[in-house]
Amino acid sequence: MAESGLIIVDKPGEWTSHDVVAKMRRVAGTRRVGHAGTLDPMATGVLVVGVEKATRLLGHLALTEKVYEATIRLGVSTNTDDAEGETTATAPASEVTAAEIHKGIAALTGEIMQVPPQVSAIKVNGQRAYKKARAGEEVALAARPVTVHAFEVLGIHTHDDVVDVDAVVTCSSGTYIRALARDLGAALGVGGHLTRLRRTRVGPYDLSLARTVEQLVEECVILPIGEAVTAAFPRRDVTAEEARVIGHGGRLPSLGLGTGPIGVFGPDGGLLALVEEHGPVAKPLAVFVG
C-alpha cells in the first residue's frame, strides 16, 4: 500500500486537475488519490493531491486560504472571463489611469459578493454551469460571499489599446480570480479577462514544497499525513485512554483550540483523527486509525 500523505504538485499549464490525479495514481501506485481545490487548465502552480488515507483531508484543505499571481488584461472581455474563451467585446483601455485601477481593485478587496463565471463547475439544477454555458444556455448564477484578503498590484503595462495588470491575490476558498478580472474591467468600463494565473499557496503548502510532474515521476515525494496535518491545523496530543475513545469514533472534551479542524495525535505521535470543537465536546470529522 502506498504511504498516506500529500503530494504537492506544481501543475503544468494545459493539464486539468483530473489529468494530474490520473498521473499521480500511476506515480504513487494506488487508485486512492484525489485533489483539494481545482485549478483550471490554463492555470499553473500548487495543486494539493491526497494519497490513501490523506484523501479524507482534502475537503478540509480545500476550504483554506489561497494565494495567486495573476495578469488581468483590461480592454478585452471573453465569454469565459479568461484567455481560453472567445472575445465578446473590446474597448480602448489605454486612457485608464493607475489611480482608477487602484480604486477599482480597492472596491474588490475585503468581504465582497461575487458572481461566479458562467463557465464554472458550480451546479445549477444538478448540472455543471460550464456544460450549460457551452451548450448555449444562459446561466444565472447567484452572487456568493467571498473574502479577498489582499489584492496587490505588482505592475501596470500598456500595449496599444489594452492594459495588463500584474497582481497578487490572497483570498478565501471559492473566490474566482477570473471573476475579479471581469469585475475590475466592468467597473472601469472597458471590460477585462484573466490572461495568466499561478497558484503559489494553498493553506500552508506553497511552491517551496511543490514538485513538477516530471520531478515526481523521477521521485514520488509524499508529505507524511501527520506532518501534513500539523502544518495545516492546530495539534492536540492525547492520552492512551483518549486515543482509544477517539479511535472508536467517540468524543473528547473541548480544549478551546479553535473553530476549525484540529489534528489529534496519540502517545506515540501518530495521527489519530481530525476533530472539531462544538461547545463542550470535540467531535470527530475523520478517523485515521483502523
Describe the structure.
The protein has three domains: 5-64 and 203-226, Pseudouridine synthase; 70-188, 2-Layer Sandwich (Pseudouridine synthase); 233-287, PUA domain (Archaeosine Trna-guanine Transglycosylase, Chain: A, domain 4, Roll), CATH 2.30.130.10. The two termini are 15 Å apart. The chain contains eight helices and 19 strands. The longest helix has 12 residues, at 17-28. The radius of gyration is 21 Å and the shape is elongated. It has 290 residues and is of the alpha+beta class. Its EC number is 5.4.99.25. Residues 178-221 form the tRNA pseudouridylate synthase B C-terminal domain. Belongs to the pseudouridine synthase TruB family. Type 1 subfamily. InterPro entries: PsdUridine_synth_cat_dom_sf, PsdUridine_synth_N, PUA-like_sf, PUA_sf, tRNA_psdUridine_synth_fam2_C, tRNA_psdUridine_synth_TruB, TruB_C.
CATH class of the largest domain: Alpha Beta
Strand tally is 19
Helix % is: 10-25%
CATH superfamily of the largest domain: Pseudouridine synthase
The largest sheet is: 10 strands, mixed
Order of helices and strands: EHEEHEEEHEEEHEEHEEHEHEHEEEE
Q: Quick check: average pLDDT? A: 92
What overall geometry do the principal axes of the alpha carbons give?
elongated
Structural class: alpha+beta
Q: What's the architecture of the largest domain, going by CATH?
A: 2-Layer Sandwich
Approximate strand percentage: 35-45%
Using the CA coordinates, give the radius of gyration. 21 Å
Taking the alpha carbons of the first and last residues, their distance comes to 15 Å
Query: Which residue ranges are poorly predicted, with pLDDT under 50 across at least 5 consecutive positions?
Result: none
Organism: Nonomuraea phyllanthi
GO molecular function: RNA binding; tRNA pseudouridine(55) synthase activity
Enzyme class: isomerase
Function: Responsible for synthesis of pseudouridine from uracil-55 in the psi GC loop of transfer RNAs.
